[in-house]
């Protein structure tokens, strides 16, 4: 099938093809899929600073053919597609989606940082019923920011395709009767890949509209965060204040699963007040019980959306309460360069607890504070005041917060946000003042030497 020669100015994308290579696909049909991919490539400007293309195929296992960083020209990608060999095994679609989410779209494999808002597109082509579950992993992939097109060929269940593809399904889910007809989708995707949705639709983005195939999303300028409606922007409560922030949250059995979910909501409400980005605030989180578990590190995520999704996935530990061990881990590990801590960036920790610790807290809290970490201690219910004082930085009235019950957490959350943001802004202002004084003294010193 010939591809029409049209004027196409596609949006830069990170685009991964996910190809079913199961035994149910005949060799000549497998070649038709390769032709379809090559035809679609004509609508993409393949280059490191334009669209990057990766491809994996799957059967009983996932085989990565090439990643987003492998090739820098369309010709190289086309040749790699032609060289693909049919796996002819099972149909583990869920496994392939998991690989796409956890590996193919990582920066290590060539995906660009999320704050650049380069659309992440996965096109899944399948001809049969998956041998594993797809609903949950596909939902996680979409929530992580991957826009999924699901293409079914032959006797594929439409409900399965809808469970995989993004919404609206009319734009992202396609079913054709056989592999000969898959070529009819070329013109459909030509329209999607060559249209600037921000110019076509009334997007109503307050600041910036970012186009992607058959969709768009809104972006805010630096110092602002996207509001709940996904279109308007609001000033970040901490403005452009930057910090490395580590949450240390109690996961002991005295808390209970219901209250633990409230603690996760508390964490996400703090995250909503921050400008989280590669150059902005970074967030890590520890959960502790009898043991300490790093849920995610400072260097792991660079967007509020990713942090909040990671928080939502945290599983309650529900055993003892070793707050001292958690403080030690925070001091020795969480604020290390290996975990993503940056030099000359304010280091802040919010420690949450609802009861007495089973080990000493003073030693490691003091070491952390003496090293420059500002600690906010948040206690609820049966938290011990003396322990909170030992944990918190001074003065207490700015760093120690207590609520009798979880229903009162909203009140102290507001106070904590305000105090933390004021402190970070002050530290940034003081840092700039010191830098300006240093530059002035350096200039004066050079001037004195010159006039001698």
Topology (elements, then pairings):
Elements: E1 14-20, H1 27-41, E2 52-58, E3 62-66, H2 74-82, H3 93-104, E4 120-126, H4 135-143, E5 146-153, H5 158-164, H6 169-172, E6 173-176, H7 185-194, H8 197-200, E7 208-212, E8 215-219, E9 224-226, E10 233-235, E11 244-250, H9 257-271, E12 282-288, E13 292-296, H10 304-312, H11 323-334, E14 347-353, H12 362-370, E15 373-380, H13 385-391, H14 396-399, E16 400-403, H15 409-451
Parallel strand pairs: 1-2, 1-4, 4-5, 5-6, 11-12, 11-14, 14-15, 15-16
Antiparallel strand pairs: 2-3, 7-8, 9-10, 12-13
Helix pairs in contact: 1-2, 3-4, 9-10, 11-12
Pfam families: FXa_inhibition (PF14670), VWA (PF00092)
Domain VWFA: 14-193, 244-416
GO molecular function: calcium ion binding
| Chain oligomer state | single chain
Strands, total number: 16
Structural class: alpha/beta
Query: Count of DSSP helices?
Result: 15
Task: Return the CATH topology of the largest domain.
Answer: Rossmann fold
Task: Tell me the Rg in angstroms.
Answer: 26 Å
- The number of distinct structural domains comes to 3
- Describe the largest sheet: 6 strands, mixed
pLDDT below 50 for ≥5 consecutive residues: which ranges?
Answer: 1-7
The geometry reads as: elongated
| Corresponding CATH architecture of the largest domain | 3-Layer(aba) Sandwich
State the helicity in percent bands.
Answer: 25-40%
What is the residue-mean pLDDT, rounded to a whole number? 89
Span from first to last CA? 80 Å
- With strands numbered from the N-terminus, the spatial order across the biggest sheet is 3-2-1-4-5-6
The CATH superfamily of the largest domain is identified as: von Willebrand factor, type A domain
Write down the CATH class of the largest domain: Alpha Beta
Percentage of residues in strands: 15-25%
């Amino acid at each position: 099938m010939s591809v029409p020669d049209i004027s196409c100015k596609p949006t830069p994308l990170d685009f991964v093809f996910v190809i079913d290579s199961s035994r149910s696909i005949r060799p000549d049909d497998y070649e038709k899929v390769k032709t379809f991919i090559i035809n679609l490539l004509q609508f993409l400007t393949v280059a490191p600073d334009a669209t990057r293309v990766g491809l994996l195929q799957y059967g009983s296992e996932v085989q990565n053919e090439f990643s987003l960083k492998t090739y820098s020209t369309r010709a190289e990608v086309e040749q790699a597609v032609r060289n693909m060999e049919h796996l002819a095994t099972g149909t583990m679609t869920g496994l392939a989606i998991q690989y796409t989410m956890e590996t193919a779209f990582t920066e290590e494999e060539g995906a660009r940082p999320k704050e650049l808002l380069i659309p992440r597109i996965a096109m899944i082509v399948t001809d049969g019923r998956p041998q594993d579950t797809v609903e949950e992993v596909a939902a996680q992939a979409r929530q992580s920011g991957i826009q999924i097109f699901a293409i079914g060929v032959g006797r594929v269940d439409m409900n399965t395709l809808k469970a995989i593809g993004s919404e609206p399904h009319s734009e992202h889910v396609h079913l054709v009767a056989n592999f000969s007809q898959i070529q009819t989708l070329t013109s459909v995707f030509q329209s999607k890949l060559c249209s600037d949705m921000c110019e076509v639709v009334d997007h109503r983005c307050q600041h910036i509209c970012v186009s992607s195939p058959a969709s768009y999303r809104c972006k805010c300028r630096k110092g602002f965060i996207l509001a709940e409606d996904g279109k308007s922007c609001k000033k970040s409560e901490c403005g452009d204040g930057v910090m490395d922030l580590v949450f240390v949250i109690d996961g002991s059995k005295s808390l209970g699963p219901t209250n633990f979910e409230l603690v996760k909501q508390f964490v996400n409400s703090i995250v909503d007040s921050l400008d989280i980005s590669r150059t902005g605030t970074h967030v890590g989180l520890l959960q502790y019980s009898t043991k300490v578990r790093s849920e995610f590190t400072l260097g792991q995520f660079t967007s509020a959306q990713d942090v909040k999704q990671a928080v939502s996935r945290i599983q309650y530990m529900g055993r003892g309460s070793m707050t001292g061990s958690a403080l030690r881990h925070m001091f020795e590990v969480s604020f290390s360069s290996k975990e993503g801590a940056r030099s000359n960036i304010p280091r802040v920790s919010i420690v949450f607890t609802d009861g007495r610790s089973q080990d000493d807290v003073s030693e490691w809290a003091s070491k952390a504070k003496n090293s420059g970490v500002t600690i906010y201690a948040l206690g609820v219910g049966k938290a011990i005041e003396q322990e909170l004082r030992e944990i918190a930085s001074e003065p207490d009235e700015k760093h120690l917060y207590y609520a009798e019950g979880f229903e009162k957490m909203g009140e102290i959350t507001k106070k904590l946000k305000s105090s933390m943001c004021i402190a970070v802004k002050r530290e940034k202002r003081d840092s700039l003042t010191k830098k300006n004084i240093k530059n002035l003294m350096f200039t004066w010193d050079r001037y004195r030497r010159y006039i001698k």
